[in-house]
Structures are given as structure tokens and as C-alpha cells.
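Course assignment 3, question 2. Fill in each field.
Student: A.L.
Task: Predict the tertiary structure for the chain below.
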Amino acid sequence: MSWVAEQLGIGPGATVADVAAGTGKLTRELVSTGARVIAIEPLAEMREQLEAVLPGVDARAGTAEELPLESGSVDAITVAAAMHWFDIDRAVDEFIRVLRPGGAVAVLGPGRDLEQPLQRAVQEAIGDYLPEFSEIAGWRDGVARGGRFRLAETNEVPFEQMLDAEGLAERIGTISYIAGLPDEERNAVLAEVRALGEQQPQTPFPFRYRMGATILRQTPSQY
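Answer field:
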């Protein structure tokens, strides 16, 4: 997060919109920078959890396609693991509208570290249910369309979660493509994942990821 804050100038005196904030995992990191943070999340139950953890945060109902923000009111926008859900052309229009001249967008998302045997085993268990990379990353072409933004800087850092077998199954169960399966099919997949966790030589065990961040900068014609 420190790299993103540095690249986007997120800190005291800056205003940042965390779009599709969910329960506020990224929002908490943004608040710690001293910036003014506006968390935007369409689901009421998600906002309730966010506000319970961050009672002082400005949490608003809204979507990337209809941001509840005034034009030219924010210095930066962050999006964590949600860009592939957006109507990207409408979202980009809104990003351009609400950003101040020179403002930028940071897109963050975790990727599985397939150098770890456990991650490879989980990938084999759930791979048939996951979309193609082009479906997840298709937003990149949409962002560049019309020359509104350019893909500027990228960075990737490793991190890991310490989990037990049940925690691993719960973690995988939160993936939208798994959560949306019929009950019987989802339970069978998660039972296989849980068994992989039970086979680990220690508990808790590390589950490794690589967190990627991409900075999108407005082209001068959009100022």
C-alpha cells in the first residue's frame, strides 16, 4: 500500500475514493495514510460491516458507473479486485468526471503464487470453475480505449495468509465463481480444498499470493 500511496500522492490533504470498497479491507489502509477517504459500496450489508470497523469513514452507496461524487472532487481512486465486474466504459467516464486534473487510479488485486505446491493443488481443484485470464483482465483494453487513461506503473509484491484447513476452505469459498455454484457442487469443491489443507505438515500453514498494483494515469487531453 505504501507504494500505491506514494505513486498517487495519497496522504494528508488528499481525497481518495475507494470504489467497490466491500467490507473495507483496503479502506483501512487508506485511512492510515491521513488522507480523506470516501468508501463507495453498493451493498448495504457490506457497508454496515465497513462502518462497524471504521465508524468515522465517509461510506456512500454507489457504483463505479454512477459515483456519488461531485465532478473534479477527488485526487485518486482505488479499486481492489473489482474492475472486471464494472461496465468499463461507463466506469471510466465516471473516473474521468470525478478526478481532479492529474488524478490517477490504482487497481489492486491478488494473484495466486503457483510456485507454491499448495496453491498449485488448489488451482487444480478449482480451475474448471475459474474464468480465463482475458475475462478477468479485459478491463485493461477498455481503460485504454479512446486514450482516456494510460497504463503507467505496475508493481507486485509477495504476501501470505496463515490458515488452517477450514480457513482455507472459507477463503476459497469467498471467490465469487465458487460462491455462486449450486450448493452440492460448491460443497464438493470446498471439501476437496479442505482435504488439501488437512494434508499440510503444520497448522497454521502459509497460503501464498502475489499482490499486483497497476496505476492508470489520465492522458493530458482529459484534464
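Instructor remarks: The chain has one domain: 2-222. The chain has ten helices and seven strands.
Grade: pending
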